[in-house]
Amino acid sequence: MRLAINLVLSLGMLALCTWLVWPNGDERQRLVAEIGKLRWADFQPYLAAYLGLQIVVHLCRALRWNHLLAPLGVKVPAGPLLAISSVGFMAILAFPARLGEFVRPGLLRKGGYTTASAALGTVAVERIVDGLIISLIVFVAFFAHRGPASPSWMMVTAYLALGVFAAALVFLVFAMRRPEPTVRFCVSLTLLPRFAPRIAALLEHVLLDMIRGLASLKDRRNLTLFLGWSVVYWGANGLGVWVLAHAFGLPLSLAGAFATMGLLGIGISLPNSPGLVGQFEWFTLLGLSIYLGFDPRNKATALYELAFAFALVQHLLQVGWYVAMGALGLATPWVSFHDLWSARVAAPDDDDHDHGRDDDREPVAEPLPAHDLPHATARVGGSGNGKQDKKLAPETHSTDDPMHAPDRS
Predict the structure, then answer these.
(1) What range defines the domain where residue 29 resides?
(2) What is the pLDDT confidence band of residue 4, given thresholds at 50, 70 and 90?
């Protein structure tokens, strides 16, 4: 039911945003003319700077995940981590209804590093921290820019986004301190215990397993390192928007570039349309309209056409980048297309990991106690042919349990 609702919202977002930005025949001609005005000799240095910043963005976004996985006793080598993350980022962009968020945890489980549910907990932390960062950026930028001419929705959006992600952070804090009462309370709000008790019990089981992934919030060192990577990640992202805007001749300030980036980040955190079609352009136009002073509903102005050309080209560059990086990830020995397809929904956690990936795993020097670890696979023994795989914290589960049924795909 939840998936069906998200799909409906995703398709609704696609229809709404496409309707808001879709140009008619005359507008398309003017859009092509605006893009055609770009001279390659002038555009090339800006494009090179943008792509250089995109490399920084990609590396920071991918490698910082290890600092959330480390408290679980999991360390993924840089090569597999980049491959898994690149494929996951491509899936987030391509799949509707935020289904792509399940791909990275599913691929980690396929590789035998940890359970999908525990990894999904780290993704939840990542999303909430990112949401708080961009909400703070938007709030500060909008608060500094507010005035009589500001649109009425500007500060409402800033307060609402900050409130939502702050509430999510409060949930994380309570979930770490009192996991079972917090999960029971949240599940009770869905009314599932009354109408579908078996589904409610399954949901409680999944959420409690996810909370194991929140252990990263208790590790101050790794959390600090994760926040440092995140600051660099979002800083490079905002600079990329500013550089590309100036390639189009848009007089966008640095604060305006970061505010536009933040508003876009908030917008695409909603149930996303496939490929972010329409959604990317609309929220970019909303951010630009505040700082450049045009009406995003009036498509007849020259400034709107230039801003829309910028939003469209930036979207195409982002799609091209993540598709290319995802394709490179699929070309590595660590991820296959079959892994991507089977991981598009977080698969049930089982004990039958793919031992063909053993050479890519690294144990941590001081793992957590066995009863605190997920069903990860660690290497024991010395080097050479005497290496063996050892299951950490094995549990016996019935094959009738949908959460732990063997994966026969």
Answers:
(1) 23-371
(2) low
